[in-house]
Write a structure and sequence with these properties.
By secondary structure, this protein is an alpha/beta fold. The protein has 14 helices and twelve strands. The chain is about 35% helix and about 15% strand. Strand 8, helix 10 and strand 9 form a beta-alpha-beta unit. Helix 1 packs parallel to helix 3, helix 9 crosses helix 12 and helix 10 runs parallel beside helix 11.
């Protein structure tokens, strides 16, 4: 299976506010630049309040504009994945008025709100279903951040309720566009935050793929340095962590977001970071694709974004290719001529974070945690370690399916054998 390469599409003109003042010619210019990198797909973000301003209304003109983007992408050989509940983007929340203030209702548990979400996602999926370049829906961007701290006004939800919500909304997508690549995604609290209601099991066992969002500003670059092995291997680590939680050894993992955030990754090193991150991720056997964040910088004309958000693009606002963009283009070209070898990882580090349903001790997987430190030590030694859950660490069939021949525990990594 060849790895897919794409980018999260952030319009050069107006950021995601472009849906309010849609300009197809501007979109086409952006897509010309993206296609010039040799990429094969984009991820697109409708703004939820713009598309569904009332619980019973999905705007026909908004759907028309979305289809125009998908069709323009097809003309340039680009497939399109579409996110639904936007949700949360670059530190801003976008929730329709019928879920906030005087209509404040829990987006995960209120029956009317969930029915409205299902109606919206089904409407999008149905409209997109006949487009041959439509990959599938992602429920929304990192919607798990609404469920727990540090969000200032969370919608509390239990682990079982979160699972039911995911199944309900993915079923709405499947009903609208049967057989497509429908997924859900989360920011890394799902893997690293004890007590978070969205769990690793949810991420890896529900949906067509496990989606990973890898950001080294989560403490990795701060603790180890922007030019460290930990930072260069972090996306690879998260892909392997995600693969471990799947019950199907062949379940695909989509590195759906990864980027080079300044100042943790200085602008002059963004290309080098991109090249190293991609090369390391490509060694993962279950990798479906890499979708870089993001296509274009946020314009300095727009206020109040966190500083790091302004410079994450592969292109400037006038569609000039940046060093990270060139690094991605080079990686794509190299894959076409000499694909990276995805050799099964023979050594696996055993992960035990308690009950698999709730993963109560998952913080050990984060930067500075014992499990992460042990995995990183193996990686520095060139082991290309996999991760295996404790419950299947002695399951010969599972290990064989993943090509694992040696299982080590965290204390073993610090023994003389692995020193």
């Amino acid at each position: 299976m060849s790895v897919r390469f794409g980018v999260n599409y952030t319009p050069a003109r107006g950021w995601f506010f472009h849906w309010l003042d849609f300009d197809l010619d501007a979109v086409r210019r952006d897509l010309d630049s993206i296609a010039g990198l040799g990429l094969d797909h984009i991820r697109v973000f409708p703004l939820w309040p713009v598309f569904q301003p009332n619980r019973n209304l999905v705007r026909a003109n908004a759907i028309r504009d979305l289809l125009a983007v998908v069709d323009a992408a097809a003309e340039r050989g680009l497939d399109v994945a579409v996110d639904g509940l936007q949700g949360h983007l670059s530190s801003f929340d976008f929730r329709p008025s019928w879920t906030v203030s005087w209509h404040r209702r829990n987006m995960f548990t209120d029956p009317d709100v969930v029915a409205g979400e299902a109606f919206y996602l089904n409407t999008l999926a149905t409209a997109l279903a006949d487009r041959p370049n439509f990959l599938g829906m992602t429920l929304g961007n990192e919607v798990n951040q609404f469920s727990d701290k540090p969000h200032p006004d969370p919608d509390p939800v239990g682990v079982d309720e979160a699972e039911s919500w995911l199944h309900r909304l993915l079923a709405a997508c499947e009903d609208g566009a049967p057989g497509k690549f429908h997924t859900h995604c989360a920011y890394d609290a799902v893997w690293l935050q004890d007590g978070h209601p969205f769990t690793p099991a949810h991420a890896a066992r529900i949906g067509a793929a496990t989606n990973v969002h890898s950001w080294v500003f989560n403490g990795t670059a701060q603790r180890y340095g922007g030019d460290s092995a930990a930072t260069a291997h972090y996306a690879e680590y998260q892909v392997e962590l995600a693969a471990a939680w799947a019950t199907d050894p062949a379940h695909p993992v989509w590195l759906q977001e990864v980027g080079a955030p300044a100042p943790h990754i200085p602008a002059e090193r963004a290309g080098e970071f991109a090249a190293a991150t991609v090369a390391n991720a490509l060694s993962c056997p279950n990798l479906w694709g890499i979708t870089w964040w993001c296509s274009h910088d946020v314009s300095r004309e727009l206020a109040d974004f966190p500083e790091l958000e302004y410079g994450l693009g592969l292109f400037t606002n006038d569609n000039q290719r940046k060093p990270a963009g060139q690094a991605i283009a080079d990686a794509v070209a190299a894959q076409k001529t000499a694909p990276a070898q995805r050799i099964p990882r023979k050594t696996a580090l055993v992960l035990d974070v308690g009950d698999e349903h709730t993963a109560p001790a998952r913080s050990t997987c984060g930067p500075g945690g014992e499990f992460f430190e042990a995995w990183l030590r193996l990686a520095r030694q060139g082991a290309r370690p996999a991760v295996v859950r404790a419950s299947v660490a002695h399951d010969a069939e599972h290990l064989a399916a993943r090509g694992i021949s040696e299982v080590v525990h965290v204390p073993d990594v610090w023994s003389s054998k692995h020193a």
